[in-house]
Every structure is written in structure tokens, then in C-alpha cells.
Amino acid sequence: MNRIAVPLFDLAQTLESGQIFRYRKVDDLYLVAVRERFFRLRQSGGRLEFDGADAKFVRDFLDLDYDLDAALGRLSRIRQLRPAIAACRGLRIVRHDPWECLISFICSTRSNIPKIKRSLNLLAQCHGSVVSCGGQTEHAFPPPGSLCNLELLKTTGIGYRADYVMQTNRLCTNGMLERIAALPYPEARAELMRFPGVGDKVADCVCLFSMRFREAFPVDVWVQRAMLELFPGCGKNERQIRQFAMQTFGPDAGYAEQYLFHYRRMMKKAMGYGL
DNA sequence: GACCAGGAATTGG
DNA sequence: CCAATTCATGGT
């Protein structure tokens, strides 16, 4: 396995914070599928070991060259964020593949993480070619244009979202997402919302998790609850909360969102084990 | 702007 | 076992 030194990084929290869905943990190894790639990652302290992908890709995917320490320093000036920052320190925002990210979050609407993971794995098994790494096999994510069989899509359990996936598959021509990613954030967001099944929240997830728009602030039920609790007067609906967050957190809104989201979910899980 | 369909697995009681 | 919830969107 290759080795690199990593600064301020937490592999487990990065992968298990709902940014990507096609990964699995085998002992201390994480097996991760991103489009046609399938690679392995393991962290021990400040060292990251990996194979199945080159160092350039891994650094870019895990946002390792971003000055996270500086960003968390800026966000720490807002006292309401400090518990989340202390608990999730090292969590980074990935750069997923825009196509896989778009389809993944269209499938995520009004669903839950275990179900989304299962659906996306089934989707890859139905349509994707086999890829392998370290004796393990996985399926590549089906490329744009290949999600055109409604009956097959429905076998993955995505239900009514199959129509959105198929229409988005039809509308998304070659190079379109790359062109959208090159636009300024507000325009990229508006372009993404032209795809059926993509509203404010899904568009912001794609902007944040695959296009490096760190100013995006996706508002889901968990973040909404956290914001209402921490910032009384931030607004009463998702649109107002997003506006408030973008004004308050500025270019760090995306990291603020991801820390609030993951912290809230960690807390919930901890409660379940009697803490 | 508020409300509801559509949809199924997971979680909670 | 049954009820509530789930990283929302689109149409009315």
C-alpha cells in the first residue's frame, strides 16, 4: 500500500458523514467506490495508506490540500459551532464524481442512509461493470446514458425516484456536469435545479460534495433542527435558514453544515447506546 | 405559500 | 407488531 502523511484528517468521519454511499468497512480498511474507481484506504494516526488509486486522486478526493485548520479556526469564532468542531475535527468534504453524486442525491430524497446505500449498490450491480481491488470486487457506477430502463431501475427500491433518474439521465449530455462545475456557484446551483428531482437541497449537496463549492449550505431536517436550536431567529423555513447560514458562515458554510449534520447524527447514535 | 402524493426500509415504542 | 420517521421534490 502507498503511504502519505495527512494533516488534520479523520478518515472514518469523512467517509461516514453521508457524503458518499458506496463504501464498506472491512476490519480497519475502507473500500470505496467512486464511478469506475475502486480503492482501499486505511488511516493510522497521521498516516494514510491506500491502493487502487494514485496519490493525486486520493489527495483531491479527500480535500487533503485544503487548509482545514484555518477554516475551522474561522468557524470557531462562532461559539455555537464549537462543540460540533471539537467532536468532528478532521472531517473533510470530499470531491465526489458529479454524475454519481447527482444520481445518489436524487435517490436520497425522503429516504434514509441504509436504504440509499442498498439502492445505489443495486443500481451499480444492475448496470455497472465489475472492478476489483485487493482481492475484493465492486461494480462501477453506471455512466450517463445507461440509466434508461425504468423496470430495472425500480428493482433497486428507489420507487418514484426512478422517473427522475431516467429523465436526468436523458437530459445530462456528455460534459454537461463539468461545464456546470466551472460556473459560479449561484449559476451552477440553478443549472442543477433544472434536472427533475433536484431541488434546493439536492442541488446544494451536488455543489458541495462534488463541485467544491464550499459556500453551499444544504438544509436537511438534521441541519434545520440544529440551526433552529443554536441560532434562534435564523428563520423558520429551509430557504431562510440557508440565507442566514450563507451570511453568517460565508465561504465556510459548507464545512459548517457538514460538521453540524454529522455532530447531530453522532449524538443521536450515542443516545441509542445509552449515553 | 401551504399541503399532499408517492414510496419503502428503518427506527421507535 | 404497528406507528413514526426518513439528508425533499413536484404538482395542485
In short:
This protein is α+β, with helices and mostly antiparallel strands and 275 residues long. The protein has 14 helices and seven strands.
Describe it for me?
By secondary structure, the protein is α+β, with helices and mostly antiparallel strands. It has two domains: 2-210, Endonuclease III, domain 1, CATH 1.10.340; 221-267, Orthogonal Bundle (Endonuclease Iii, domain 2), CATH 1.10.1670. It contains 14 helices and seven strands. A hairpin with a 2-residue loop joins strand 3 and strand 4. Helix 4 (82-88) packs across helix 14 (253-272) and helix 10 (185-192) packs across helix 11 (200-210). The mean pLDDT is 94. The structure holds a DNA duplex (13 and 12 nucleotides).
Secondary structure layout:
Elements: E1 2-5, H1 11-15, E2 23-26, E3 29-34, E4 37-44, E5 47-51, H2 55-61, H3 68-75, H4 82-88, H5 98-107, H6 113-127, E6 130-133, E7 136-139, H7 150-154, H8 161-171, H9 176-181, H10 185-192, H11 200-210, H12 221-230, H13 238-249, H14 253-272
Helix pairs in contact: 4-14, 5-11, 10-11, 12-14
The chain binds a DNA duplex (13 and 12 nucleotides) through residues 18, 105-106, 108-116, 118, 157-161, 164, 196-202, 205, 218-223, 237-238, 261, 265, 272.
At the first level of CATH, the class of the largest domain is Mainly Alpha
Query: What's the number of extended β-strand segments?
Result: 7
- Give me the CATH superfamily of the largest domain: Hypothetical protein, domain 2
Q: Percent of residues in helical segments?
A: 40-55%
The SS-based structural class is alpha+beta
- Kindly identify the CATH topology of the largest domain: Endonuclease III, domain 1
Give the overall shape: globular
Q: Which stretches are low in confidence, meaning pLDDT under 50 for 5 or more residues running?
A: none
User: Strand order across the biggest sheet?
Assistant: 1-5-4-3-2
Assembly form of the protein: single chain
The separation of the N and C termini measures 38 Å
- Helix and strand string, N-terminal first? EHEEEEHHHHHEEHHHHHHHH
CATH architecture tag of the largest domain: Orthogonal Bundle
Mean pLDDT: 94
